[in-house]
Amino acid sequence: MSLEDHAEELASDLGVDKEEVKEKMATLLEYDVPIDEAKQNIRRTYGDGTTSGTETVPTKELADVDTGDSSVSTTVRVLSVGKRSIQYNDQEHVIFEGEVADESAKRSYTSWEDFDLQPGETVTLGNADVREWEGEPELNLGESTTVERVDETLEVPYEVGGDADLVELVPGDRGINVEVQVLEVERKIIDGRDGETEILSGVLGDGTTRLPFTDWEPSPEIEPGNSVRIENVFVREFRGVPSVNVSEFSTVETLSEPVDVQETAPRRSVREAVESGGLFDVELVGSVVAIRDGSGLIERCPECGRVVQNGQCRSHGEVDGEDDLRTKAILDDGSGTVTVVLDEEITAEVYGGGLDEAREHARDAMDREVVADAIRERVVGHEYRVRGSLSVDDFGANLEASEFAEHAVDPAERARDLLEAAE
Ligand SMILES: [Zn+2]
After folding, report:
1. Class of domain 56-160
2. 270-422 CATH
3. Any bridge partners for residue 51, and if so which?
4. What is the pTM of this model?
5. What's the pLDDT tens digit per position in 372-414?
6. 166-254 sits in which CATH class?
7. Distance CA 408, CA 385 (A)
8. Can you say whether the dihedral through the CA atoms of 323, 324, 325, 328 is positive or negative?
9. Cα of 292 to ligand 1 centre, how many Å?
10. Ligand 1 mean position to 392 CA, how many Å?
């Protein structure tokens, strides 16, 4: 059944305008709401008695709201308010999103209507829909929701206003404000919805870490070396790590005081790092326990850069591979393991020679594997401090290393690490 058919059926059921129903449905589907849930949601909006019209909406504390609730009423403090536009079928919908809290918990929300919510105010939300978002219940405020301002401020154990350090950000965060130094900026032309548009991408840093960003409406203040306060950003996952998104609704203001940037990456245990789901810049310390296949003197497809095995590229079939050096080392710190990927430059340092040396070595031995063997000999069983960008997916955790240094173990530090690991 097409969207058109679903809308037609539902509209005739409810006795309302089809186009209106179709538009609401399209918006919900855009948000990955399953079709049945979208239809129920729309039925509720029109107060269809067959689903909820006569039921009373329960009043709940946020900790008690779960994904099984269809809708709730609740009194909350607004922590953050982000504004964003989403696009569907050439139509723009402006939505508001952020977090609300009470004494028991905090929850994210999406508002499909402009209720003029302000961070810090206390409101009673009547008939807010509940849906699952990133595995958690989320409040959805729409046409059927009422918002009543409450004079007495609700005290909550959470920070109001959306200010955050970069290291705290996770994909899904909305309505966030950051104070950062712009470290790298690249201008890109992309095929946007209105033809070619220019965007900015690069790296931001603060006292806690650095993160990649995209600015969809290039702001003149976003220039390398500038320190800025950016209000109302949202966070998305990009290549396995959180990325700061600056939109047309964000405000960017140059700060008179420069923001200090942390020069070193935050140190994490392998387990902590992997559990975080991905980190743009992290430091791990552990022992290399093995070198994986596909290390040493490898061949890449000249078309796509993938590693070629037995002269075959997965996408391009038989190709004339180009030599490259790479190392995939398994790092173990006792809490978990991660595959550390060393590029040509770092591999050459570890191996003690570049491509020419590796080719000669392989030719003399009449075996390309000797290069991987030499690397294995050098690194396995040694402890390393590794810095880089960690991505985690179904195939495992991979860290693209930017630094890979043998860890000179200072006994005091070792003792501290052991104590920390034991905590
Ligand atoms: Zn290929």
Report:
1. mainly beta
2. 2.40.50.140
3. none
4. 0.69
5. 999 999 999 999 999 999 999 888 999 999 999 998 766 676 6
6. mainly beta
7. 9
8. negative
9. 21
10. 24
